[in-house]
Specification:
heterodimer; A: alpha+beta; twelve-stranded mixed sheet; three-stranded antiparallel sheet; 6 helices; B: 223 residues; mainly beta; two-stranded parallel ribbon; 4 helices; 15 strands
């Protein structure tokens, strides 16, 4: 398969079951909503080192938020419910509670409701106030008002936890670092317009893809030498002589379809620059299909087949 | 769920309405409701004209033409919506457990007494001991409030459009803009009530009743 002169490898991305949640963060204005959300989603690129993978999903208008203020929605993913709950509480306490004017609300409903402000309320030292208020559908929701120095911190008691998928990915291979980065930026711009997904790495792009294992016994992951352009000729390389740079985009989403749709949008955006702009191949990272529960086959996805 | 309408007939005695709640009257015919005894020698039909109207999503009960003689309206209500298109006597919404109670007119003494949850919205005036011993929930009054406001109140919110008489056991916490009020006002907009017109998030906050637990608040809306 070739798109705009870019070869699409006959391969697949291997992804994993995760647990996910969505939080709506509002503030006096978008500047402070972003300050809170950026702090909350900081150091959340990979579960390997950060516990969770998190990112800003999209901006929210005043009409879309419970308290009528501007905000952003954040998606957060972890390998298990226990880690997700612990990380959510920690980040709520350190990043949202602390941020001037910020408030937090449930962004998703499910049978599994987890603590958002339920335990954080004790920061109020007995002065916290609970309010049960019906939403637009008449469903009662519990909020906590916690006295803080800038006034009151408002948070909903719980948010939903759902089954989700993490680790959808594709690799962009090109003639130069600058050209590959430009293609990845175009891909990220396209993917960020879609709901229910985040690209958790810096700017949405990973430059240090890894393989399982290492020559060093204590390392359980190491550089993906087969895709490192400076090792061509030294290792069993996946790269032909034209390729001087490879970057990866990792995408987590609430469903298989969400990830597949975003991968399609991202790959098409990257390929839109074409061979003339140094974009040569698109591939994907997998572990031979033995570790992940979900396989995102590039060619069927680009043909519009997005079912699992 | 049906909408039950009870239109008050002129009465020369007080009428205890505690048996008349939205959920309790659901799935009953007008005749069955009319036969309910309010006192030894007083049935619903003696005191009200009964009609059962269109289907609603939640249990709904409307009182019409009521006066201060109609006491204990909404007593211990657990769910649904109760609207009083008239005045209400003493103990309006007392021991309210949940749901929304809207009184378009004035309320007698002890409105919201020992209320635990839900919303009691009084568009007119509230008499003495409004919110007495309230445990939680939200009680709003657009008109004036009488003596001993929030007496023994433990938790919960009294939302007032008019400044109350000073209370010795309530502490003035100053003026604030409270974000949660936006959410509360949004819920008001779903109701057929003058409370839907409130928009100011700036309030004067009082905490009390310091004679007891002292975790309750009076919020006086500022223009």
């Amino acid at each position: 398969m070739v798109i705009n002169g870019v070869e699409i490898d006959d391969t697949f991305a291997e992804a994993f079951n995760m647990r996910g949640t969505r939080i709506l963060i509002t503030a006096q204005n978008l500047r402070w909503a972003y300050n809170a959300a950026n702090a909350m989603t900081g150091f959340a690129t990979s579960v390997i080192g950060c516990g969770v993978e998190a990112g800003i999903e999209r901006e929210l208008s005043e009409d879309e938020t419970p308290d009528g203020r501007p905000g952003v929605s954040v998606l957060m993913f972890a390998m298990g419910s226990k880690v997700l709950m612990q990380q959510l509480e920690t980040r709520m306490g350190q990043c949202i509670l602390t941020c001037p004017t910020a408030a937090a609300f449930a962004g998703i409903e499910s049978e599994d409701m987890i603590s958002l402000g339920k335990h954080l309320r004790f920061f109020g030292d007995g002065y916290q106030v609970s309010k049960q208020i019906p939403d637009a559908n008449g469903k009662l929701k519990r909020y906590w008002r916690i006295p803080v120095m800038d006034g009151e911190f408002l948070t909903e008691e719980t948010t939903g936890m759902v089954r989700a998928i993490g680790g959808g990915n594709f690799l962009v291979l090109g003639a130069s670092q600058a050209q590959v980065l430009t293609a990845c930026e175009a891909a990220i711009d396209a993917m960020r317009k879609l709901p229910n997904v985040i690209m958790p790495f810096p700017g949405g792009v990973v430059r240090s893809g890894s393989k399982v294992g290492s020559k060093y016994p204590k390392m359980f992951a190491s550089t993906n030498d087969a895709f490192c352009p400076t090792l061509k000729g030294v290792v069993k390389s996946e790269l032909d002589p034209r390729v001087e740079s490879v970057m990866e985009i990792v995408v987590n989403g609430l469903t298989f379809e969400d990830i597949a749709v975003s991968m399609k949008a991202g790959i098409e955006a990257a390929c839109s620059l074409g061979k003339d702009n140094g974009i040569l191949r698109v591939s994907a990272g997998n572990y031979g299909g033995k570790l992940g529960q979900h396989h995102f086959k590039l060619r069927p996805i680009l043909s519009g087949e997005v079912t699992a | 769920m049906s909408h039950i309408i009870l239109t008050a007939k002129p009465v020369s005695r007080s009428v205890d309405c505690r048996a008349l709640l939205p959920l309790a009257l659901q799935s009953k015919t007008a005749a069955e409701i009319g036969a309910i005894k309010l006192a030894a020698n007083l049935s619903v039909l003696d005191a009200f004209e009964v009609s059962v109207d269109v289907a609603t999503e939640a249990p709904k009960l409307t009182f019409k033409n009521t006066t201060s003689s109609h006491q204990y309206i909404g007593f211990g209500m657990t769910t649904g919506q109760l609207v009083v298109e008239g005045d209400a006597g003493d103990f309006l919404g007392a021991q309210l457990q949940n749901g929304v109670l809207i009184c378009k007119g004035n309320a007698g003494a002890r409105a919201g007494d020992r209320m635990r949850r839900g919303m009691l919205l009084i568009e007119g005036n509230a008499s003495d001991y409004c919110g007495s011993d309230m445990m939680a929930g939200t009680l709003g009054v657009l008109g004036s409030t009488g003596a001993h406001l929030g007496y023994g109140m433990k938790r919960g919110t009294l939302l007032l459009a008019q400044a109350p008489a000073l209370q010795a056991t309530w502490i003035d916490c100053g003026f604030h803009k409270l974000p949660f009020l936006n959410i509360l006002y949004k819920s008001f907009k779903l109701l057929d009530s003058r409370f839907a017109q409130i928009s100011s998030q700036r309030v004067q906050r009082w905490m009390g009743d310091m004679g007891g637990l002292g975790k309750a608040e009076i919020l006086v809306i500022q223009a």
